[in-house]
Amino acid sequence: MDTTSRSDEPMSPDRRRSASAGMTFCALVTLIAAALVAGCQTAPPAPEPRTQPQATLKSFGFVEGNDGWTLSLADPILFEVSKDEVKPESMKSLAGVAQGLLQLGVREVRVEGHTDNVGNRAYNIELSRRRAEAVARVLVANGFPDAGITRRAWASDYPVAPNQTPDGRAQNRRVTIVVLPPDLAKD
Fold it and tell me: What is the phi/psi pair of residue 132, to 5°?
């Protein structure tokens, strides 16, 4: 007796159910296998850990103080006597500071202008205001939001060096940039 079936012979109802069940089973096994293979795919790499804001601020030269992180641009050539123009070499470092702050998500800073104690107070207040504004313009030119910059003019109220020597006075002709702690807390 020949047990093989020929394609031109009609299939019995029992054989059709059996064949249909076999195809359903194969389809189910195929779907399960596909799901298992997909589940075994290598997971995407974990995102790089973000740089800690404090470490980045330190790398720019910021120092943590009582009211936030302060960058003192106290290089003696930053401002000449009675001048408010930012030197080209300082512009480059300010551009890097602006970009770094933006990458950290910092959108608010305080820019503070300072002078030495030579000259009258009214003149020094105006000069320190112009110095703060000059640094703010460089930050804005490098993408920092103007609305996020508070300007302060301190004249000679907060010296970082004695004003009795030319070197001390040069150190006091500076601008500081302060990043307040709440802005860092947004991270």
Answer: -60, -40
- Would you say 69 and 56 are in contact if contact means Cβ atoms under 8 Å apart? no
| Residue 140's pLDDT band (cuts 50, 70, 90) | very high
Q: Is pLDDT above 70 for 48?
A: no
- 149-153: strand order across its sheet: 63-65, 68-73, 175-179, 109-113, 149-153
Helix, strand, or coil here: 74?
coil
Which of 12-26, 51-65, 103-117, 142-156 shows the lowest mean pLDDT across its residues? Answer: 12-26
Q: CA-CA distances (angstroms) from residue 119 to 74, 82, 129?
A: 20, 9, 15
Could you say which of 1.20.210.10, 3.30.1330.60, 1.10.238.10, 3.90.1150.180 is the CATH number of the domain covering 53-185?
3.30.1330.60
Beta strands in 41-108 (DSSP E): 63-65, 68-73
Q: What SS3 state is found at 17?
A: helix
Single pTM value for the model: 0.64
Q: Return the SS3 of 98.
A: helix
| Cα angle value 50/52/56 (rounded, 5°) | 110
For 103, residues 6+ apart whose C-beta sits below 8 A from its C-beta are 56
